[in-house]
Design brief:
By secondary structure, this protein is of the alpha/beta class. The chain folds into two domains: about 25-135 and about 215-300, Alpha-Beta Complex (2-enoyl-CoA Hydratase, Chain A, domain 1); about 140-205, no CATH class. The chain has twelve helices and seven strands. It has helices at about 1-20, 55-65, 85-100, 115-120, 145-150, 175-200, 210-215, 220-225, 235-245, 260, 270-280, 285-300; strands at about 35-40, 70-80, 105-115, 125-130, 135, 220, 230-235. β2 (about 70-80), α3 and β3 (about 105-115) form a beta-alpha-beta unit.
Length: about 300
């Protein structure tokens, strides 16, 4: 009798102590950490990089290490960018999912196109809004030709190289058809890597023919599902509650803000002046970057 009493008292004390634990740490809690991956992928300017593996690796590791996690949710809103950074982020997500044995659910907001769709393929399932845009499985590159402009201005181009193709596609020289052919061959090689990744990730779910899916075209939500590029229509709240119950916890795993990234928000002496100097020096680059970024988003109507 005394032992039963002690057991009850011990159990009551344990229950009281559990009340002081954060909900996500309590036994039996269903937790799905959420990571937002948004923006153009890769370097935008040296001072202001876009989404890169270096920038998101720590956040991904924290998300996959959350106690009681039943899955990891990725919210993607990206028009693409660097194929290298896109694939590296994709691979890191796949590695972490395999290590932690956790499913990955992807939720597309406005766009998961090009490199953004490559990252989305790291998910076991992809959900989107009817108005989301997915696809653009292709490779694009571009430049400008200024040779006539500098000629009118009376500017002489002087370029010294070692290597027959070192100045390939120089914007101040006339376009060379052989150089264009080399670039297109390089693009085709990268395109094949992208295609293989999508086929491996989506497998038998892909319903469209290669000459439809892999032309660089993109589609809205319902059409994407019909082609097998996505699995269903749904928002993160509804899907996670349906899967893991009304009380599922969805902590957002975010990188530290600028204020918290330093010790109590303090900066080293002169940091303010350096930041101001960088801002002034980088104004032309920032303007070009802003135009390029806007053009990438505008391609998809945003």
């Amino acid at each position: 009798m005394a032992e039963q009493l002690n057991d009850r008292e011990g159990s009551g004390l344990a229950d009281k102590l559990l009340q002081y634990l954060p909900a996500r740490l309590r036994p039996g809690a269903a937790v799905v950490p959420v990571v937002r991956l948004s923006g153009v992928i890769g370097a935008v300017t040296p001072l202001r990089p876009g989404m890169t593996l270096a920038g998101v690796a720590r956040v991904l590791e924290r998300a996959f290490s959350v106690r009681n996690a039943k899955a990891v949710a990725l919210v993607i809103n990206s028009p693409g960018g660097s194929p290298v950074q896109s694939r590296q982020i994709y691979l890191r997500i796949k590695q972490l999912a395999a290590e932690k044995k956790l499913p990955v659910l992807v939720f597309v907001e406005d766009v998961a196109a090009s490199g953004g769709y490559m990252i989305a393929c790291a998910g076991d399932e992809i959900f989107c809004d009817p108005s989301s845009i997915l696809g653009s499985i292709g490779v694009v590159g571009g430049s400008f030709g200024f040779q006539e402009a500098i000629k009118r201005l009376g500017i002489e181009r002087r370029l010294y190289t070692a290597g027959a193709h070192k100045a390939m596609l120089d914007p101040f020289l006339p376009e060379n058809p052989d150089d264009v052919a080399r670039v297109k061959a390089l693009q085709r090689e990268i395109h094949q890597i992208f295609i293989a990744l999508v086929k491996e990730s989506r497998g038998a779910r892909l319903k469209g023919a290669d000459d439809t899916l892999f032309t660089g075209e993109y589609w809205a939500g319902e059409s994407s599902i019909a082609l097998g590029l996505a699995d269903g229509i749904g928002d993160i709240r509804s899907i996670l509650r349906a899967r893991y119950g009304e009380k599922v916890l969805t902590p957002v795993i975010a990188p530290p803000t600028g204020l918290l990234s330093g010790l109590f928000g303090r900066k080293s002496p002169g940091a303010g002046q350096l930041s101001a100097m960088e801002s002034m020096a980088g104004l032309p680059d920032e303007l070009i970057s802003a135009i390029e970024t806007r053009a990438i988003w505008a391609k998809f109507g945003f």
